[in-house]
DNA sequence: AATGAATGAGACTTCATTCAT
DNA sequence: TATGAATGAAGTCTCATTCAT
C-alpha cells in the first residue's frame, strides 16, 4: 500500500517536472498536470497542499539528484584539478541528459521561490558542513591550486559558464559533444586556478 | 507637447520595469502596473497593444541601454585583455547599478520570448556584422590571446560567471565591491585566454 | 448520474436562450447568464468552450426543435396545398408559442454566425436531399400547383410573411388567433400557387 | 457656417451608416467611426449626444429616404394592383441598390431600439393619417381588390417576402434581376389580393 | 483514497464618453 | 469649434482549489 502511494506521488512529480519544464510554472494548469499524470485533479491535492508545495518538493528532489550526479565517480585522491574537471563534466552531462531537470531548475531559480532557496543554500555553504561539492573541494584544497576568493565568486566562475552554455545547447544553438565539454571544463578550471608565472597577458 | 507624450510612455515603461523586476511578468497585473504608473488602465493600452508588446518594447530599450553601457570607454588601441577587462567591468557595473534592468532581462531570457530572441541574436552573432561587443573583440583578436573555441563557448565563459554572481549579489549574498569585480573580470579572462606554458596544473 | 449532467448543461442552455432572447447576445453577459442559470461562471465554460460555442449549440438545438415542429402531423397523402397550409400553420404555432426560440433565431440569423449558417443551409437546400420541408414539398409537387420559381423566391414568399407577422405579434401589435393564422397561411399559399384563370387583375 | 456643420454631421452619419451596416452596432467602435469619417472622436459627440442618438437619427434619415423611394412614380390613377406592384418594385430596387441602408434597417429593427420604434410606427399606422404608403393604398382601395384583413397581416404579406429575399440577395445567394423582381412583386400581390373564383383546390 | 464537477476571484482587454487644450 | 489622450466600468475567460460522491 505504501509503495503504491509513493508510486502515485512519483508519477505526479514526474508529470509535473515535464510539464513545468516544457510550459513553465504559469502555463501548466493543475488540470493539465493531472491529465498528464493520468490522475484526478483532486488526487494531486492529496499529495501536495498546493501548487507551491508541489514545486518545492520537486525542487528538493531534483536538486538531490543533481548533487548525487555531480559527485559521482569523483576520486578524492586525485588532484584538485582532476576532481574539479570531473565535477564539472558530471554537471554538464547530467544537465545535458536531463533537460527537464535543467529547465525546471532554471525556472525555479528565477522565480520568487528561487531567491529564498538560494539564500538558504548559500548560508549553509558558507558554514562548516558544506553540501556543495564544489565548495567542499575548494575548501579542502590543500595544494593551493585554487584562487583565494569568496565562495560565491568561485562558485560563479565554476558554475556560471556551464549554465549559460547549457541554455544555448537546449535552444539548439550548440552541440554539446565531448570535445566541447572538455573545453568548457578546462575553461572553468582556468578561471579559478592560480595562474602560473609567465606573461600574464 | 511631444515631450509630454513621450514622458507618459516612459513613465509607464519605467513602472513596468520596476514591477516586472520585482514581481515577475505573471504576478504583475496590468491594473497594478497602471496604478504604479499613476495612469488609467486604458492608457497603458494606448501606448502598447497588449502586455506582450509592452514587454517586448521594454526589452528592446533595456537591451539597448545595456549594449551602450558595455562598450563605454573601451579603448580599441589597448590589448585584447585590457579591452576585455573593461567590457566585463562595464557589464558588471551596469547590471549591479541597475538591478531592475538585470532582473527584467533575466526573466525575459527565461520566458517564451527569450528563446526566440536569443536564437535571433545568436544567429546575428555568428554572422559578419556582429553586434555583441564581446564577439567583436574575440573575432578581431589578432594577437591570438584568446582560445580558439566556438562563439557560444567563449560567450558562456565570459558572460556566465557574471550573471551568476550578479544573481547572488542581487539576493544580498555578496557585496560587489571594486576588488571583487576585478577578480571576476580577471577570472573570466583566465577562462578564455590561451594559457601560458608551464605546469598546466 | 448521466441525466444529472445533462440536466445542468440543459439548464445553462435554457437560461441562455431566455437571456439572449430578451437582451440580445451582446447585452447578455456571461456573469448574468450564470446567475440566471444558478451556476458559477466557470461552470458555463465547462460545457461550452466560449460564448460563441454556446450560441452555436443553442442554435443547433433550437433549429432542430423547429424542424421537428414544422413537419408534425403533415400527411403526405394530402394535396400540396393542404400540406403547405399545415406546414405554415405548424411554423406559426411553434414560433408563437416559443417566443424565446423565435427571438433567438431572429438574432442568430442577423449575426455574423447567421450569414455563414444561412449560406450553408441554402447550399444544402439546392442539393438533392433537402432538409427544409418546404423545399421538399415544392420539389416533390407533382401536381404542378406551385409556381416555377427559384427556391429562394418560393422560400421568401412562404416564410417571409410569417416571420414578419410574428415580429409584430411578439411586440404585442397583433393577436395571433387561429383565424388570423389561417388567413396568413392561405395568403402565403396564394403567393406561391399558380393562379387560376380569370381576371388576373 | 451652418451648412458647414450640417456637412460634417452628414459625413459622420454616412460613415456611421457604412460602418454599422458592415460591422454591426456592437462591433463599430466610436473611434473607428470617427476615423472613417475623418473626424475627431470628440466631434462626433458634438453632433450626437451619444451612440444611441446617432443610431436614432440615422434611422430617422434612412427611413425617410426609404419612404420617399417607395412612393416614387406611383400613379394614383392606376389600379390598386398596378400601384401595389410599383410600390413593391420601388421597395426592392431601393434596398437592393442601398445595401448599407438595408443592413442598417435590419439591424435596427432587431435591436432594442427597433421594438419601441416599431410599436410607435404601428400605432401611427392604425390611426387616421397613415404614413405607410402600403397601408394608405390598402385603406383607399375602393375597388375591393385587396383582402379584408388586419393591417399587420397585409403588411406582413406584402413586406415580409421582400425583406426575406433581400437578405438572401445580400448574402449572394440570389441574383435580383428584373425578372425575379417582377415575380416577387406579383407573388406578393397574389398573397393579398382577393382570389378570383375558380377551383381553389 | 480517488475523482472531477463546480466555483469565483482575478487577469487581460475594449470602448463609450469626457475634458483640457 | 475641434481634437484625441485619458479614463475606468464592464466583459470574456482561466485556473487554483474545494468538496460531494
- Supply Rg of chain A: 19 Å
Task: Write down the CATH class of the largest domain in chain A.
Answer: Mainly Alpha
Q: CATH topology of the largest domain in chain A, what is it called?
A: Tetracycline Repressor, domain 2
Quaternary state of the chains? homotetramer
Notes on the protein architecture:
- The structure is a homotetramer of 201-residue chains.
- With 201 residues, chain A is an all-alpha fold.
- The first copy, chain A, has two domains: 1-48, Homeodomain-like (Arc Repressor Mutant, subunit A, Orthogonal Bundle); 58-197, Orthogonal Bundle (Tetracycline Repressor, domain 2), CATH 1.10.357.10.
- Chain A contains ten helices and no strands.
- Chain A has helices spanning 2-23, 30-36, 41-47, 51-70, 80-97, 99-109, 112-126, 133-139, 151-170, 178-192.
- The longest helix of chain A has 22 residues, at 2-23.
- Chain A is elongated and about 60 Å long.
- Chains in contact: A-B, C-D.
- The interface between C and D is large, with 53 and 52 residues.
- Chain B binds a DNA duplex (21 and 21 nucleotides) through α2 and α3.
Give the gist of this structure.
Four copies of one chain form a homotetramer. With 201 residues, chain A is an all-alpha fold.
Amino acid at each position: 500500500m505504501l509503495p503504491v502511494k509513493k508510486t502515485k506521488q512519483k508519477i505526479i512529480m514526474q508529470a509535473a517536472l515535464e510539464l513545468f519544464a516544457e510550459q513553465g510554472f504559469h502555463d501548466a494548469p493543475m488540470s493539465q498536470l493531472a491529465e498528464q499524470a493520468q490522475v484526478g485533479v483532486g488526487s494531486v491535492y492529496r499529495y501536495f497542499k498546493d501548487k507551491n508545495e508541489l514545486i518545492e518538493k520537486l525542487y528538493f528532489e531534483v536538486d538531490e539528484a543533481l548533487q548525487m550526479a555531480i559527485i559521482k565517480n569523483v576520486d578524492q585522491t586525485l588532484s584538485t584539478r582532476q576532481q574539479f574537471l570531473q565535477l564539472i563534466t558530471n554537471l554538464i552531462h547530467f544537465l545535458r541528459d536531463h533537460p527537464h531537470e535543467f529547465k525546471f531548475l532554471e525556472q525555479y531559480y528565477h522565480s520568487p521561490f528561487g531567491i529564498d532557496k538560494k539564500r538558504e543554500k548559500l548560508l549553509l555553504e558558507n558554514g562548516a558542513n558544506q553540501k556543495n561539492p564544489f565548495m567542499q573541494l575548494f575548501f579542502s584544497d590543500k595544494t593551493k591550486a585554487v584562487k583565494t576568493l569568496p565562495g560565491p565568486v568561485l562558485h560563479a566562475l565554476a558554475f556560471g559558464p556551464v549554465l549559460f552554455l547549457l541554455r544555448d545547447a537546449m535552444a539548439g544553438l550548440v552541440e554539446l559533444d565531448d570535445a566541447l565539454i572538455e573545453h568548457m571544463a578546462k575553461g572553468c578550471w582556468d578561471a579559478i586556478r592560480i595562474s602560473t608565472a609567465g606573461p600574464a597577458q
